[in-house]
Fold this protein.
Amino acid sequence: MPGLGTSFGRGGATTAQQDLANSDAILIMGSSMAENHPVGFQWVMEARKNGAKILHVDPRFTRTSAMADMWVPLRAGSDIVLLGALIRFVLENNLDFREYVLHYTNASVLLRDDFKDTEDLDGFFAGWDAEKKEYKTETWSYKDSPTNKDSGSGHGGHAKDRGGEKSQENVYEQDLTLQNPRCVYQVLKRHFSRYTPDLVEHECGIPHEIFEELATAFCSASGPEKTAAICYAVGWTQHSDGVQIIRSAAILQLLLGNIGRPGGGILALRGHASIQGSTDIPTLYDILPGYLPMPFFESDSGSLDDYLKRHTTEAGWWSNFDKYAVSLLKAYYGDQATERNDYGFNWLPRVTGDHSHLGFWLEMNKGKVEGLFVMGQNPAVGAPNSGLERKALSKLKWLVVRDMVESETASFWLDSPEISRGELRASEIDTEVFFLPAAGHAEKEGTFTNTQRLLQFHEKAVDPPGDARSETWFMYHLGRRLKEKARAHSSPRNAPLNALTWDYPVEGILAEPKVEEVLKEINGWNIVDRKLVSGYKALKSDGSTACGCWIYSGVFPKPDENNARKREPKGRYGHGWGFAWPSDRRIMYNRASARPDGQPWSERKRLVWWDQQKNQWIGYDVPDFTKSKPPDYRPPENAKGDDALPGDKPFIMHPDGFGWIWVASGLKDGPLPTHYEPLESPVQNPLYSEAGTNPAAKKLENRENPYASSPDPRFPYVLTTYRLTEHHTAGGMSRYLSHLSELQPSLFCEISPELARQLGIHTGDLVIIATARSSIRARALVTTRIRPIHLDGRVIHQVALPYHWGYKGLVKGDVVNDLIALSEEPNVRIMETKALLCNVLPGNSRTTKRKLLRARFPDQTKTTDAPAERKAS
Amino acid sequence: MPSLFSRWPLIRQITNRADGTGPEAMSPRTQSLHTRKRGAQKSRSICPYCGVGCGQLIFHRDGKLVSIEGDPESPISRGHLCPKGAASYELLTHPQRAQKVLYRRPLGTSWEELPLEQAMDMIADRVWQSRERTFVEEKDGQVVMNTTAVAHLGGATLDNEENYLIKKLFTAGLGMVCVSNQARI
Amino acid sequence: MTVTAFLTDSTLCIGCKACEVACKEWNQVPGDGFIWSGNSYDNTGALGHSTWRHVKFVENGVTPGLGGNSPEAFSWGFSSDVCKHCENAGCLEACPTGAIVRTEFGGVFVQPDVCNGCGYCVVACPFGVIEKDEQDGRAFKCTFCYDRQRDGLHPACASVCPTESIKFGNLDDLRAEAHGRIEKLKSMGFDDVQLYDPVDSSVAGTHAIFIVRGDPGTYNMPPKPEVPTIYLRKGWTSAAIASGLMLAATLFAFLGGRRA
């Protein structure tokens, strides 16, 4: 989450779900929280009971909208227009929390004179390299700060989760009057000056008075006495400018003083049990555990020292980078990692290209990938342009799929649409496929990291059935075999494999590795006596400690103290239940909950404060600050690391200790967010004629991944995809369950009554939804919950599809992701699924089936007060 | 015989002076009714679906699952679950749950069964051969040490420890750089 | 023994259907087929032998910008329905085999080992709750999680509900809580909110009460639920009068004849 990472310093939700109960207003946008996180939503309901205003912005009226005080529909893909207008609303009406903004954000910092804005360059920020199609970010730096050598190319986006590239933002000049035209505040003000209520009305389709009402409701719930929170999910991220949408929210929350305070914050809602965990301990190509960047070919091909110098900052927490990197290498390569061989740094592979999911899949489609492991993911249904994804699978030499059910991915050669349409023939597919059954959560132990960075251990209750095994088992025993092979061949390429420590004890008749031993390695220990370290502050750069993921250090500080397993919640934030990284802090940056002098902004919003008697920070949460550093601390000259940060700078990961309204380094598509149209859009960008879409995004356009033009008469409607409460993602954990399948047995397409009338479609009709990539069939669900958007007298119709179905399971349906384009947002390389162009056509409209259905079920355009149908039984 | 006679509802109603709709009309099964989880073992778990992280209690007896419910002590979920979390018992016990290793040979048109250990050996062989064929140690005198021809996908549904071993073996051990998962936000 | 009840507050319901699933998981109720209705998000239709909790979805028109369960514009309503466990329970009164009993908690429980599937209860229920499973042959409905209550636990649906829209507890306490909640909601501008608690009807009160907005009829809650057995007294009286008259007529015929 580089949006949050660059803004605040850490790529994780800043708050905890329970803390939403303390909010005075909650803006839910880019998420249908009641549907996709129903149990987390109880805290929103709690806030509502306490009188908080719940605001839901979404193209669809969902179960979340039904619970909100206000639902604001907008054109899918116009999010930054609305958020930019909220930022402008704050600035124009002087609603910013001035003391917070002055002391805790970089609003007062002066920028370079040669920086040019998108407003000057018709949609481009300064530094655009039209040939390479990427930015040189030098001019984005603070005025007078040493030039950042990193051009913005090279490191992938997830490394930015750590809060910017190594840079020198600790050197800066301020104007505390905020009047200097080159200070961030004034640049911001000019940048968003065109984001007027008029623009909102014309681009989002939100009338003036509704915008005013929304803006007033949110902004009036912020200040010393009040706080407002923002919740988002993939409705923001799955856009070609997703990271910048999140950045807009971060700027808004910094201006209103809502970060680090109770009831404030930005809550990123994650869709999988350990999706936060899988970026913290990444199964991603561009980072190592704890957001250490993977070494890149050429730029990191030198010595360990070069790599450490490149990524260790002078000031702020990342001055400890070397300790975490060396300790990781010691955890990986054990005794073989020595000072003499750079702790095995040159055994680590170098990143030589775009190895993200979409990047390597295109290579696979060209036949350049031999083998693939798929574990607990179902790209044949869940990935964008899944038709292309499935075809690419047929070009592998071998495929290993591990899942709890025989997924569509495992059987792509047997019953995929390509096979049934005759485009592929099983007898011609060369791929060797291994399907291995996987253990479920109750059949293995381990930790999940939830949406609020909380590590929770789950115990094993029973053995997995038959041949089903955990991934721990699979990886351990596969590694054992491979190490065996490597032992016989001592070539340089086998050196890392030979050095890799792999001595996990196993237990039981299944020879299951002891999971807590792995967790201990993640926590870290002293090499000399294997004594577990108490936390990341104990880690060293001299090779005397090993630690598998520094941000998790402290989870297992003593042999019998697995903090993720703790089940004794106490206090407001449930300390004593699980372990939140870092150091069990539940609300990050909570130093900001106190004034610069260390006292609470208000009694009502008290969280962490300076205790003058005890001379330390105390409060309801673990202070996210050096405990004994007084509020009036000023760093001596030449101070390094955390000591170089004053006592009133809460964002300790950043070299300047500020929350970043302006991101000087770390993002690939701009220091500020700006509105770009989706890669497929029914309208032209009203702001820029040159760069209408995000110039740094990759369309990956080719014959198999074509795009509609913007606009395109063939595809006049906006399509957005979504999830339902009753199903889970690509369906592997829901479509096989009778109790869930019966609740949503069929793929359907939500269409407004206006569009339905225009097309002669009724609820229950089969319709064809077509995009430039593919077409699918679904049942029409005509409902007033979908509304046409009016832009300047023009009507934009939006249609919505849930994407859970596939060609296996108790309930089947066409694969919605066949419609989506492979595309890459520049920072995290995520695809755009929330706004694209489609057409809707009546399909099989004269069949008996439809007539039967229409006879059986009342049309949704009428009020549904007809007696409910007795179900067939 | 007399006992059978005395259990006859009408007789019980008369003797108990009840109206025949209360305990007197209860069958022995009803009278001894109790939950099936009584006396079962309890494991503390976390819901495997979304990122909320609801607490779950897993009741089991003799190596078999009995029921899965919300954990009332969880400070996040307070004992509640959504429909998916509430269906966790079926998730683990439904009849389509895979239990056998399946193998599809090149150009094959159907699945075959394979012993697990043999499958593990074969997979290790495939990884080894592909890596041997495609590994690059250096380019222009600079370190590469990777293979881009063996890839991995998945992780957001797995445990941290599992992801740790995947990254450690695949990337730090084998030099695989094409490693990705659902989490790219 | 405490007299227990459900209070289902539809103003807190988010339509997630966790109650439906938790009920089925705990009570091992089979699935009831995969038929898409096109009726909003409701695909289980109604309460029946294989659906003991059912969430109804009511879509009304939307006023742009004023969405939600807000006082101004009610747009998408959800309410979880369940067996009412009537004080005068039609099913119980109609059951000829003694299969349906009243528990010590006040609930109405169908004993599956006694039920012979005659189906008299089905027509006797004023809410259309109990239903016969034609394949199995017996009638089923919500058990009020009698087994769980016996073990001191709350019913599965009430335990699971993410937003505590389904509350479980002592009937009188819940009734008091409901009145307080309604006051609060009214003060927030929810003028159309009301308590469905049919005490003054032939069912003489229920063990499942509801807070709903608008007309309870929308949620399958009749204003005056009628237990068919209330007509029994009238029926018996008419029969008695009729037989008396017939007797009189007969006597009259005989005596009158003799006189003639």
In short: Chain B has three domains: 2-31, 41-93, 135-185.
